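Sample pair:
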Amino acid sequence: MAVILFTSLASMRKHHQHGAVNWGVVRKLTPGILLGAALGTLLAASIPTRGLGIFFALFVYFAAAQILLDVRPHASRQLPGIAGMTLTGVFTGWLSSLVSVGGGTIVTPFLLWCNVSLRKAIGTSAAIGFPVAAGGTLGYIVTGLSSHTLPQPSLGFVYLPALLWIAIASITTAPLVR
């Protein structure tokens, strides 16, 4: 989740430059995302590693099947009001923090279902990655502070050397993808 902080900023910037981010949607989803991420990290810290691994694998298989089969929701509604957006944000933050994804796997189909164009759905989902990563990272730092079995140097469940090297590689190579 901590690496997504860096990669989401680059992605968000690029999509914003192309006018593909609906900032109103980002603002409406963010409070729920932060709450959901906090709940998700608390749950993840209490689930045995094996159970969390199985849940992650099932999520990846589900997401891969949707991509391989080109399953997309049919645009059949409009964006919900503030309560619906908050609940969507809570679910997005909760699930994203459990499986350590940026939220696009959840938000993009939701936005397509709500009649948002594919371009805007992808750009807005990219921008959603930052609050998802911020909430998840903070949650994993806080929940991991009491663990004394983690390698040093760690900040909670964030292993800092891995964060440094993966962030450098991501920031360096992200501009190469077009």
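The chain is about 70% helix and 0% strand.
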